[in-house]
Amino acid sequence: MAKNFKMIVFSQPHEGREDEYNDWYQNRHLGEVIATPGFTSARRFKLSGKLSEEMPAYPYCAIYEYSADDWAVPFGALSERANSGEIFMTDAINTDDLQFLVYEEFGDEVRRIV
After folding, report:
1. pTM for this predicted structure
2. Does residue 58 come out as left (phi exceeding 0), alpha (psi in the -120 to 50 range) or beta?
3. Which pick of 20, 48, 65, 80 has the fewest CB atoms within 10 Å?
4. What domain range includes position 100?
């Protein structure tokens, strides 16, 4: 039975290349990623604040949603597409400082009813 996952990617541009990084990420990269089988949506976020100044933080994150029996299968397909050049990676992104995390949905969603 397919499970639902969220892949969260924390990243940052190289200094002085933020506009190029944001254009590539929003207008090219998200679409290329969700063209990978299993992936269904993607959305980016920009850091607005931190609860503690000592807390390390990335200026940007992207959250991708996908479904699969095994979390690693779509992630592996994504890696293959990136390695083959099907997914273009700009050098405006600092690839030395990326963090990828995959979470499986756990528990029911709770919503406020107004």
Report:
1. 0.91
2. beta
3. 48
4. 16-49+56-61+75-106
Confirm if 65 and 9 have CB atoms less than 8 A apart.
Answer: no
Per the DSSP assignment, residues forming a β-bridge with 65 are 6, 41
| pLDDT, tens digit, 9 for 90 and up, residues 5-45 | 999 999 999 999 999 999 999 999 999 999 999 999 999 99
Cβ-based neighbours of 14, under 8 Å, separated by 6 or more: 21, 91, 92, 93, 94
Indicate whether 114 belongs to any domain. Answer: no
CA atoms within 13 A on the CB side of 43: 4
Contact criterion met (CB below 8 Å) for 5 and 66 = yes
Residue 32 CA to residue 86 CA, distance in Å, equals 8
- Rounded-to-integer distance, Cα 98 and Cα 91, Å: 13
Q: Which residues contact 25 (CB under 8 A, 6 or more apart)?
A: 11, 44, 60, 62, 93
